[in-house]
Amino acid sequence: GAVVSQHPSWVICKSGTSVKIECRSLDFQATTMFWYRQFPKQSLMLMATSNEGSKATYEQGVEKDKFLINHASLTLSTLTVTSAHPEDSSFYICSAREDVGLFGYTFGSGTRLTVV
Amino acid sequence: QKEVEQDPGPLSVPEGAIVSLNCTYSNSAFQYFMWYRQYSRKGPELLMYTYSSGNKEDGRFTAQVDKSSKYISLFIRDSQPSDSATYLCAMRHNNDMRFGAGTRLTVKP
User: What mean pLDDT is predicted for residues B12-39?
Assistant: First the structure.
């Protein structure tokens, strides 16, 4: 089945630094990838939708200058949290959709970001 | 009113019990209905999906969709401790996918 690899699985960074999270579709091409944020015991909140070769579409309330998304190829999307602050600490998850086939999306394993 | 409502639980059952998980939704445009299972600190994994109304069975799992009532269910028969996880319902219309809050399930040996 479809596999999405997300890296790193966890990261600790200092306040004010930037962190990049990678999301790769391993055995399929994903024209569309999604980035979610999940706080403890809460559901997934869609942050942005990224389409290969074009600008990402951000959900209301998500700062596009803070959460930079690059979908440079059909198998790779990156999320960069710029000038991270402790309130950015969260679980970030990406997902990808094949052009055809699955009704649902395949998720990465998530990245736990802790900003100290 | 949230677009997708799901009781977060927690739900605790003894091993072997039948588990019933449910979601309601308000957007009648949703066409695809999914259930995801999420273990602690892991990404969700697709468990079952259905299109439109009806039932779908896969082993111990049965998914039901009632579009007229805007109500979906997931039944787990002969529940096992390994089923302990958070179960999220999800529904989709085109690229618009919405998730329930997730129900934390614990199956006690």
Answer: 95
